[in-house]
Amino acid sequence: MAAVNSRKLAIVAVVGIIGTFAWLLYGGLDKNVVYFWTPTELIAKGDAGFERPVRLGGQVKPGTVKWDDKTLDLRFVVTDVDGVSDIVVHSKGAPPQMFRDAMGVVVEGRYGRDKIFQSSSLMVKHSNEYKAPKPGQNGKDMVKTLMQGNSTT
Amino acid sequence: MIGTLAHGAILVSLAVVAFGMFFIPFAIKRGRRDWVALAYSAVYTNFLLITLATVAMVWALVTHDFSVSYVAQVGSKATPLFYTIISLWGALEGSILFWAWVLAMYAAAVVWINANRPGNLVPYAATALMGISLFFGILLIGPADPFKPVFPVPLDGPGPNPLLQNHILMAVHPPLLYLGYVGMSVPFAFAVGAMLSGEVLTDDWIKITRRWTLSSWGLLSAAIIAGMWWSYEVLGWGGYWAWDPVENASFMPWLTATAFLHSVMVQERRGMLRLWNLNLVVGTFVLTILGTFLTRSGIISSVHAFTTGTIGYYFLAFIAVTLLVALALVAGTSGRLKDENRFDAPASRETVFLLNNLFLTAFMFTVLLGTLFPLVAESVRGIKVSVGEPFFNRMSLPMIVALLFLMGVGPAMPWKRTSMAELKGKLLPPLIGATVMLVIAVAFGARNFYALVTFAFVGFSGASNKFEIWYGIRARHRAHGENYLTALFRLMAGNRRRYGGYVAHLGILTVALGIAASSTFRTETEATLKPGDSMTVSGHTVRLKQVWGREEVQRSVIGATLEIVKNGTVTGTIEPKMNFYPTSQQPVPTPQVKSSIAGDLYANLQAFRPDGSSATIRLIYEPMVPWIWFGGMIVVLGSVLSILPTRSRA
């Protein structure tokens, strides 16, 4: 009797866990998979592209980065590698220190119906190959500038 | 020169383990124990040769011998000696060499200790260990050869990945992880050995490997916590866990190993779950290899993934071979392997262990699914997706709270069956504990359902485990008239395994408490400050004093000095920095954390004006984060307690 009960219990437990698991899985994956799209792909989705979690990958369009260090509003345009489509991105917070034109970025967030992509996180694509920083942008020069600034004040 | 020597050592070791691996089954078939003993020397020789190669690599790194490919890749004359030495595991080839060395060491130790045991279990386990060594040896002469000659010899190298030379924990997390990860090869090899030798019908393989599994588990737990700590201290985002594939890679074998540590007790005590345990051990080992594949093949870009070479295919092939061999063996064994008992009653400790195993394996499958889904989606359908934190959190939270609950129920339940009356008395303190924690959490403003349940269950299980220890102490106090402290020590010494387990539970609960509190009550703000300006996060005010720059040997450092102001007086400073390494385009954030038992004040320098006239600071207050690290130490203490041999009572 007891043995039968425990076997029933085990079966109920297994079915219960698998059921919960499958149920969560069905709702879980569908809602939480984040697609990785380029600006062109995102625009091509039309209505389906709005207000859903997306990772948008592309390049920072030269000359579009605007950062207000008072309000911490960061705006820039992400463009395809071949420059076909542009999407305006807005995010809150400081840009990475060496955020510069034409660098590869991945922004995660939602594309609003107002055609502005609200980003919740911003990742800069690190390339493995070494590229020399622009003059004045490398650490040594920055330290030099800073130390001059401090000695004069 | 030294490269050629080390390369030769690896080649010879490869021949040695290949010989040993095939010679042992032959010797067993011929019934020649003396030949088996001869084959054991292959295990020791392999250890000596790989040690030689590893020492040669460290020597080449320290002497800046850029004619060795690995040194040319990660070495630099400007790198401090300490980071030069630990760059042994800072890139692909070196880390594979280190892995092979740890494996060779484990194999030599476990064979040495058990060499005189009669029967074929140990010889076959040695065969399996040499099979794994053979695979890593092949990697070391193939896609992960660290000793390729470089010509012309460069004068200097780029140095290690900046992220990996920025914090002392780089000397802690990787070795712990390897020791834990590779240690899982030992129970796996003995499971294979038990199935090959037919000794799977006894439980000897479990008794022999118990300490190895426990210590590997303790090391892996410590490694995961150290990895969280590293991420928290170095990456500047103020978090410690993001369900990143590399984190999942270390977490999945931990889950199955944890399941095994519990279900193995059911096997020892009641002769049940024997087939299940074989599967858990095989699964844990395969997950460590899968984890290495994920993190080392470059299939997922992260700080752990170094190159996109062919090494991934080697790992996939090895996983396939391992799974085929192991599953064939398990299938062949399953007919002979009968459990001695059945589950008697729903309310018994074995039922709790069974549920614990179901949740832990379901948890592992969830993490596996979320980790592999992007890879599968991309290779099958060509779409790029990522599975985000919401998925993992939503899926794992129900299982985490269930496990937290079981952790309190299990110790209170006796084996076989429980009477309701007995249970009622035992469940009173846990219920009080749950209520107290719940009230505290609500008082502090927690409203989220899972957060409240987590706090309640931490209180429940914390009280349960503490009271189990207390009952033991009280019994000794009454029976032997010992004072409480003596009783505590004697209790721990007398039944280390049981009380070590309770201590480990308390450690895990401390970790859970730290995670629940820091994620529920975390507050964060970001602002741009001019010198003299201040900002406040949950009652903690900092004032920018100065933005400064400094040249160090291997890097340039820019920092912001912030004064911590309390009631108008400066009580300390906090100095987040950015480190600029000459070979990296991006600076490495170097947040500073001021810890107290109540929580951490975490400051990161996000940006600054080149003239030093302002700095953008992210300031976070995270309650109880140090409890996570402290809890990790308690877990380690618990596993050490369980490993130490039980002293016979004087």
Explain how this protein is built:
The complex is a heterodimer of chains A (153) and B (650). With 153 residues, chain A is of the alpha+beta class. Chain A has helices at 2-32, 39-44, 139-152, and strands at 33-37, 53-60, 66-68, 73-79, 86-92, 104-111, 116-124. Chain A has a five-stranded mixed barrel. The longest helix of chain A is centred in the first third of the chain and has 31 residues, at 2-32. Chain B has 650 residues and is α+β, with helices and mostly antiparallel strands. Chain B has four domains: 1-160, Four Helix Bundle (Hemerythrin (Met), subunit A) (Up-down Bundle), CATH 1.20.120; 177-385, no CATH class; 389-521 and 631-643, no CATH class; 523-627, no CATH class. Chain B contains 19 helices and eleven strands. In chain B, the strands form two sheets. In chain B, strands 3, 4, 5, 6, 7 and 8 form a six-stranded antiparallel beta sheet that branches. In chain B, strands 2-11-10-9 form a four-stranded antiparallel beta sheet, covered by helices on one side. In chain B, β5 and β6 (569-574) form a beta hairpin. In chain B, α1 (2-30) runs antiparallel to α2, α7 (173-183) packs antiparallel against α9 and α10 runs antiparallel to α11. Chain B is globular and about 80 Å long. At the A-B interface, α1, β1 and α3 of A face α13, β1, α14, β2 and β4 of B. β1 (33-37) of chain A pairs antiparallel with β1 of chain B, so a sheet runs across the interface.
